[in-house]
Structures are given as C-alpha cells and as structure tokens.
Specification:
The chain has helices spanning 54-68, 96-107, 144-156, 167-178, 218-228, 232-240, 250-277, 300-308, 330-336, 341-347, and strands at 10-14, 18-26, 31-40, 46-47, 50-51, 74-79, 84-92, 118-127, 134-143, 160-166, 186-192, 197-203, 206-213, 287-291, 311-314, 321-322. By secondary structure, it is α/β, with parallel strands linked by helices. The protein has three domains: 1-80 and 144-179 and 319-354, Nucleotidyltransferase, domain 5; 84-142, Dna Ligase, domain 1 (2-Layer Sandwich); 180-318, Nucleotidyltransferase, domain 5 (2-Layer Sandwich). The strands form four sheets. It has a six-stranded mixed β-sheet with strand order 10-6-1-2-3-16, with helices on both faces. A hairpin with a 4-residue loop joins strand 2 and strand 3.
Length: 354
C-alpha cells in the first residue's frame, strides 16, 4: 500500500453542559490534533443523561461542526447517566461463547431493568485473583431507548454513528493513551460534568469500580449565582477563579466557592471511602485524576487532595498527542484540555470498516 488510510473517528461527546468535538489524525507512530471545539447547551437540554431538548442539541452539533469545518461524518460518541449500569462480576471459568449464552441470565441478578429493555456487553478481565477457577468480567448494560435517542440526535445532525461507548470507558481510553507510566497504580478517574460526576477506578489499568454521582458543577454555579446576584455566565467565571471581578471582598468570594463545592466534594470522598472498604479493593487509591468542566472549579484539586489525602491532578488529554502550534493556541489548549478528555478518548477509537 502506498497510502495508509486514517481510521480515526470523529469524537463527539454530548455532555450535559457542552458539546465537544475532537478530531485526530493517526499517522501510525503518533496522533495529531486536527480539530477541537466546544459549544454550550441550554441548562436543561440534558438531565442525568436523558435528552430533554433534542433540537437545541442537534443545532449545537451542526453549528460546532460547521465552525470547525470538520469533514469526517463517521463518529464515535458516548452515553452516561442512570441509563448506564457497569458491574464487575465473577463467574466460573468458561469460554467466550459459553459466556455469551449465559450472560443474559447472569445479568438479571445485577441489572435493575428488564433485560429485554437493555443492550448488554461484557469484557473478560481475566482469572480471579482469589480463586483461579473463577474469572472476573465487566458487565455493561445501557437502556435501548437511551441509545436510540442519542443515535437519532447524531443522525439528525448529519453524522453516521459507528461507535457508541460509555463516558467512563472513553475517559479510560484517554488515560491509557497518555499515562502509560501509571498503568500499575490504582487510579481514580473522576469526570465532573455539569449535572453528572462519573467515577472510574482502575487497578493495573482495568476497571474495578465505577459509580455515577447525579450531581455536578452546575449546583456550584447556581449557588454562586444566587448568593452574588450574578448571571449564569458571571457565576461560571467566578466558579473558575475570578473572584475579584464579581465580589467586593475576595476572601468572601473564595469562601463561597469552597462552601458551594463542599457537597459535591463530599460525595466524591464518600465514593472513594466506599471503594476502600469494598470487597473489590486490592489496595488504596494512589492517584486521583480529574477531568470535565467542573474540574476547573477554583481550588477543587487542592480541596479534594486535602480531604482525601490522595495525590490529585488535572488530566492532560493531549499529553501524548501532537498539537500543532501553527493551528492551535497551546496555552488555550492546555487550559481547556480537561473538558476534552471524554471526546479525546472517543476520537482515539478506530473505524474498523475498510
């Protein structure tokens, strides 16, 4: 072959606060960023993964794609929220064909929905550490209605959905691509969206615990909005760390941000503590990696680190991706990068159709 076909897909992350698009070029040895952009959604366009305003979302996708001048029509997208169930289960050793025959029956014990209403998938993790006659499996179930709603959105916007992933695994994909040196650690990947916070704990690079918190950084913005009589946009800026612009007393403003963020941080710490006391924990979390728009909240990294006692940092989804200085403002990309983490993981997926 004289030419190598680029098999990357357009990464489209439909979040509760923003639409994000990431386009990568795969040259074989390295991925290069081709396009990246985001567009805000109305506050209640998506609530806990449920689509409430389809036309607003479709228009946002169309306009963002047009502004970025993306040419790819085949996309990878993802779903999150209460419609997604992720469970780590243990079964007797068996081959993959046998698992496929029995997984529906097994899933009825772990999925709180009628099995006929969900799409099931699974991944074999390997032998169980405590019993070599058993094996560990990640079971994933997503409500069919939710999948169909998202596919309809994508198609209405003029794109062809090729991969439908889960936000949790797209985030894992980004982490694996950029942080090979952390592969052996127990790491908590925490994506703080506007209305949803996704927690995925990896042990030796494999999901061992997953939980969604049905709250995100929007509650922080709304509390600041009320307290200082600000517009939503002004409260967002205050939340991100510009207290001098919106409050006479900076100390009061900083204290207000901390107080507004406390309930969400507390829920994150509860989930971490639950993991540490659960049967799946084979050690303690060594690092927390934050992503999503809420991860940019003023001092949230420091507050989570202090409360958990665990090293905490912002994700850099472009750490091992070439970002051409000719086409991108590198400072802006570094600043906005954590918001692109899920979309980058989606863009790293391959189009297997030749």
């Amino acid at each position: 072959m004289l030419f190598r076909r680029d098999k990357t897909l357009l990464g489209l992350n439909i979040g509760s606060g923003y639409i994000k698009i990431v386009e990568l070029k795969d040259s074989g040895s390295v991925h290069t960023l081709s396009s990246f952009g985001l567009a805000a959604l109305p506050p209640d366009a998506i609530v806990d993964g449920t689509i409430m305003d389809a036309s607003a979302i479709v228009n946002a996708i169309i306009n963002l794609a047009a502004n970025l001048k993306v040419k790819k029509k085949r996309i990878s997208t993802s779903i999150s929220g209460h419609s997604v169930i992720i469970k780590k289960i243990t079964l007797p050793l068996m081959d993959e064909n046998t698992i496929e025959e029995t997984i529906h029956q097994e899933a009825t014990q772990h999925i709180p929905y009628d099995i006929s209403d969900v799409n099931l998938d699974f991944q074999i993790l390997g032998p169980n550490a405590d019993n070599s006659d058993n094996m560990d499996i990640i079971l994933v179930a997503v409500k069919k209605d939710t999948i169909n709603d998202y596919l309809t959105l994508v198609e209405m916007a003029g794109f062809t959905p090729v991969v439908v992933d889960v936000d949790t695994f797209a985030l894992e994909n980004t982490f694996e691509h950029n942080y090979e040196d952390n592969g052996k650690k127990i790491v908590a990947l925490i994506d703080i969206g506007a209305n949803l916070t996704c927690i995925n704990i990896l042990d030796d690079g494999v999901t061992c615990f997953s939980r969604n918190i049905t709250s995100g950084s929007r509650v922080i913005t709304e509390q600041l909005q009320k307290q200082f009589s600000l517009s939503y946009e002004q409260a967002e800026l205050l939340k991100m760390g510009s207290p001098e612009n919106f409050a006479d007393d900076i100390t009061v403003a900083i204290s207000a941000i901390k107080e507004a963020a406390f309930p969400l941080i507390n829920e994150i710490i509860k989930a971490i503590d639950f993991f540490h006391t659960s049967a799946v924990a084979d050690g303690r979390i060594e690092k927390i990696v934050l992503s999503g728009g809420g991860a940019k909240t003023f001092n949230i990294i420091k507050d989570i680190k202090n409360k958990s006692g665990i090293e905490t940092e912002l994700v850099d989804p472009f750490r091992n991706i070439m970002v051409p200085e000719k086409y991108f403002d590198l400072e802006y990309i570094r600043e906005i990068g954590p918001i692109a983490a899920v979309a980058t993981g989606l863009a790293l997926r391959k189009d297997e159709v030749s």
